[in-house]
Amino acid sequence: MEPQAVIARRIARELKSGMLVNLGIGIPTLVANHLSAGVHVFFQSENGLIGTGAPPEEGMAHPTLTDAGGRPVTALPGASTFDSAMSFGLIRGGHVDVTVLGGLQVDQHGHLANWMIPGKMVPGMGGAMDLVTGAKRVIVAMQHTAKGASKIVKKCSLPITSLRPVDLVVTELAVIAFRDGRATLLETAPGVSVADIVVATEAELAIPDQVPQMAL
Amino acid sequence: MQTVSVEQSVAMIPDGATLMIGGFMGVGTPERLIDEIVRQNKRDLTVVANDTAVPGRGIGKLVTAKLVRKVIASHIGLNPETQQQMMAGKMEVELVPQGTLIERIRAGGYGLGGILTQTGVGTPVENGKQRIEVNGKTYLLEVALRADFALVHAFLSDYMGNLSYALTARNFNPVMAMAADTVVANADNIVPVGVLAPDHVVTPAPLVDYLVANA
To answer: In total, how many domains does chain A have?
Structure first.
């Protein structure tokens, strides 16, 4: 399985029917494709939609039915639309059960950096800071390393997105939880050993005696 | 409420004005007003908006025409021209978390001095802002935003200026319609009074100063 599919598939298992879920761009978007049959979650697009569905068939796009990237989407039965104040009230008020976001770095205390690279990439934070600060549960979907360097670090060298630590990081190698300010290895990906993960990870990991394999 | 031509509506805007412009990646942006601002070459504008869209669309057209002196937005990443003008020091860019931006606008329209939020605490967003502790939690004081003009786009307007919006084209529009000294609305469809049921009016007519007539 492709690394991105491993990550998306594993995160999909965290989503339960009835949850209100916000997916960021990139790998997080793929999570929607991996939900088990019978799991019906409400996806929020922060531009003002709950009930976001797959892209429409060719020729069926509507110019005013879009996701937060401006791309055409569909609205599932039971969808609702609202203004940006309500959309961010949902996010900041703790009404969003889970947000899945991409990451540039996560430090061993769970601080996420995902919105800028000083001097290089200054796109603006969009809704990222609000989501990390306000959602009930924050899951980071990212590759374990970038250009050979661990993205799970002792301390973020990039500006962080929020002081609020993330709950879970899922990479193509591992599932790592952040509880009590510590990074704990929860699961290994199929074919990956605990030793492989330790080598690929700069952050200090708490490693339980038994680390089960990801069920995908 | 007064009905005006698109030319008249933009002629009211002086150079240097602060404009709130509705839309999210160009969806729900009053394109007719944007095109007319470019045609009338209104300069040194301060634009408050979610984003600067992409070149050739919505606020992106104002950026390309170099009419924007300052932008207050949450995201400029999909418009390389905004980034270039920012890097070259030709445009000032204030990046604001999206939830904070809409709440600052809401505060401006609702008579509040600002809002308290945990978003941004401990990040570069905090620079120069006051921290306030409430019930043991740390918040940033984010001050209200207002504008000289709000340029809003609606799906329907009746002859009196009651507005309703379509799907995700609502976004910042109804909030901005509360937060500016002068509100100019452009609607896809202008319909007789009574077509819009009271329950379906999102922006009540007294908020709209000018409705742009059909071409």
So the answer is: 1
